[in-house]
């Protein structure tokens, strides 16, 4: 079973130093143009990692990702109206 993961968007000042963020979890994406890193950590260590991330000198801001809270299961309660607008 896969562990529960928490995502963070970490805004950084220096992209070279941002490579050190791998010790906190899995680095999913690094934007060199906008200077941010998408980082996933285990939920058990999330609060501890957040405190350590905020202490780093090259980190500007840390935002939590709400991707795992978005609903991904959909129901077909509403009738599909696209068939009425066909050519």
Structural summary, described in words:
This protein is of the alpha+beta class and 87 residues long. It has helices at residues 15-18, 46-55; strands at residues 5-12, 26-31, 36-42, 59-64. The protein has a four-stranded antiparallel beta sheet with strand order 2-3-1-4. A hairpin with a 4-residue loop joins strand 2 and strand 3 (36-42). The longest helix has 10 residues, at 46-55. The protein is elongated, with a radius of gyration of 19 Å.
Question: What's the structural blueprint in terms of helices and strands?
Answer:
Elements: E1 5-12, H1 15-18, E2 26-31, E3 36-42, H2 46-55, E4 59-64
Antiparallel strand pairs: 1-3, 1-4, 2-3
Supply the key terms.
4 strands, 31% strand, 2 helices, alpha+beta, four-stranded antiparallel sheet, elongated, 87 residues
Quick take:
Strand 2 (26-31) and strand 3 form a beta hairpin.
Largest sheet: 4 strands, antiparallel
Give helix and strand order, one letter per element, not per position.
EHEEHE
Termini separation: 48 Å
Strand element count: 4
Strand order of the largest sheet: 2-3-1-4
Q: What characteristic shape results from the CA principal axes?
A: elongated
What's the mean pLDDT score?
Answer: 88
Q: What helical percentage do the residues reach?
A: 10-25%
Query: If helices are DSSP runs of H or I spanning 4 or more residues, what is the number of helices?
Result: 2
Structural class assignment: alpha+beta
* Proportion of residues in β-strands: 25-35%
What is the CA-based Rg, rounded? 19 Å
Query: Which residues form runs of ≥5 with pLDDT under 50?
Result: none
